[in-house]
């Protein structure tokens, strides 16, 4: 008696169907696949069956998932695997990508990475992305083709992350994100405790008796480090029993941020203190105040994230949140070297503590002079 043919499990049938659609070019790179519910209904199977089929294809690097958006066909997935399988080309090189190198924070971060890599016999390939996500994407592709052993990236700010980061992560390429994490994507990352840093900065100001505390940043949405700082600021206000006034938030979005802050301070003369999300914004706020003849700290207290070059030589060194960016760079380098040895290890999120460094830009509200008259006269003098 002949044996009945073995029945092919449904998840394998579904997997073969998806691969067939891709091979025939019906579903092309970048195309969004039908949802799990749609595939389950089309093939009259459970969502578990669909999940099993999709998981196999994701594991092969042929499709990728974005939380809240769905599954997509990978772009040149096979080429990417080949690029990574060229160990001899970039035997001792690790790349570091960052948007710009224009302040003490980024310089110290790069220095920490380079020192740790050099200690282990690796060389640093440094590239600037100039705040351009398309350029960031292009450079990542170039580096993987060159065969670098690992990549550390300080991502461009924005609401989305580029596809190349996603594909490298899903393909277990030794990739480490610094300064922030990417929401919706499980990556290896090293960052500061931005929430606590902002909380302590704001708590310092509320402890001095300030109640009208402004939060000044670049665009918040999509950049987790800034989002976490905003949440820390808001929590500190709430813990102090203060109302969260959205009028006190300012997002810099012009080519002349000093003028934007000047206009903001003139329109909001009740502002007593500022939390700035980086040293550049802190200095912009100080310059805007000077232009309006608002005295820091007598009439306006300022706290920023990060120190800045030769800050002790300024007339009023700003109180700041120290992120210890050099240590952040060293930790990022250690993590990428660990991933080079074992790319399939569990992903890690390293969070480093911050420290508030109190200097002369903050004083108690009781000893501060009223701001209103200065802001008004400064506006009239323009």
Automatic annotation (TrEMBL):
GO terms for molecular function: DNA-binding transcription factor activity; transcription cis-regulatory region binding. Pfam families: GntR, Peripla_BP_3. It comes from Paenibacillus solanacearum. Residues 8-76 form the HTH gntR-type domain. This is Arabinose metabolism transcriptional repressor. Keywords: DNA-binding, Repressor, Transcription, Transcription regulation.
């Amino acid at each position: 008696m002949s044996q009945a043919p073995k029945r092919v499990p449904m998840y394998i049938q579904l997997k073969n169907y998806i691969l067939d659609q891709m091979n025939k070019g019906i579903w092309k790179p970048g195309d969004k696949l039908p949802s799990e519910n749609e595939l389950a209904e089309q093939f009259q199977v459970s969502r578990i069956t669909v999940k099993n089929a999709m998981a196999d294809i994701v594991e092969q690097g042929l499709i990728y998932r974005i939380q809240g958006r769905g599954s997509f066909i990978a772009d040149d997935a096979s080429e990417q695997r080949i690029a990574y399988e060229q160990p001899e080309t970039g035997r001792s090189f690790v790349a570091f990508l960052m948007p710009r190198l224009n302040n003490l924070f980024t310089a110290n971060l790069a220095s920490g990475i380079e020192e740790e890599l050099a200690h282990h016999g690796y060389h640093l390939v440094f590239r600037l992305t100039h705040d351009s996500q398309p350029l960031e994407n292009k450079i990542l592709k170039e580096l993987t083709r060159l065969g670098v052993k690992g990549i550390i990236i300080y991502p461009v700010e924005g609401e989305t992350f580029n596809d190349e980061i996603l594909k490298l992560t899903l393909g277990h390429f030794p990739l480490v994100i610094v300064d922030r994490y990417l929401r919706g994507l499980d990556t290896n990352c090293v960052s500061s405790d931005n929430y606590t840093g902002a909380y302590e900065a704001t708590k310092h100001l509320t402890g001095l008796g300030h109640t009208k505390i402004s939060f000044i940043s670049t665009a918040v949405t999509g950049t987790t480090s800034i989002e976490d700082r905003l949440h820390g600021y808001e929590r500190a206000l709430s813990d102090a029993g203060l109302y969260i006034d959205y009028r006190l938030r300012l997002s810099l979005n012009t080519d002349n941020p000093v003028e934007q802050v000047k206009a903001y301070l003139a329109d909001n003369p009740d502002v007593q203190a500022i939390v700035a999300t980086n040293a550049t914004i802190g200095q912009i706020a100080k310059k805007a105040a000077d232009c309006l003849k608002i005295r820091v700290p007598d009439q306006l207290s300022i706290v920023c994230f990060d120190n800045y070059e030769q800050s002790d030589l300024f007339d009023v060194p700003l109180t700041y949140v120290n992120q210890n960016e050099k240590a952040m760079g060293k930790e990022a380098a250690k993590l990428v070297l660990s991933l080079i040895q074992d790319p399939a290890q569990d992903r890690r999120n390293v969070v480093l503590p911050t420290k508030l460094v109190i200097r002369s830009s903050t004083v108690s509200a009781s000893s501060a002079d009223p701001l209103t008259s200065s802001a008004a006269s400064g506006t009239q003098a323009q």
